[in-house]
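Section 3.1: Structural characterization of target chains.
Under the original work plan, the team committed to producing a structural model for every single-chain target entering the pipeline before any wet-lab resources were allocated. The record below documents one such target. The sequence was received from the expression subgroup and is listed exactly as submitted; it comprises 88 residues.
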Amino acid sequence: MPADDAPDGTDAGPPYDCPYCDGRFHRESYLSLHRGQEHPDALTDAERAAFEAAREEEEEQLRLFRLQALAALVFIYFGFLLVYAFSL
């Protein structure tokens, strides 16, 4: 079964098509990011605003992921430190 096919056999492909190329995207924010990065000269004011909003949202998600990864590394480090201290 192709990856874009839904379990009931209907085509559940990407619903957002780029008007400037053949790109297809599963989320509107992905389309906005694509248009802003690949077609910056062809953007309308509304598309540019959507790109800026999608970029800010993605930057916030990356910032949160980095904080979570740092917290996990600190937790693992101190976990190993405690295991080492109690094994002496």
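DSSP finds two helices and two strands in the chain.
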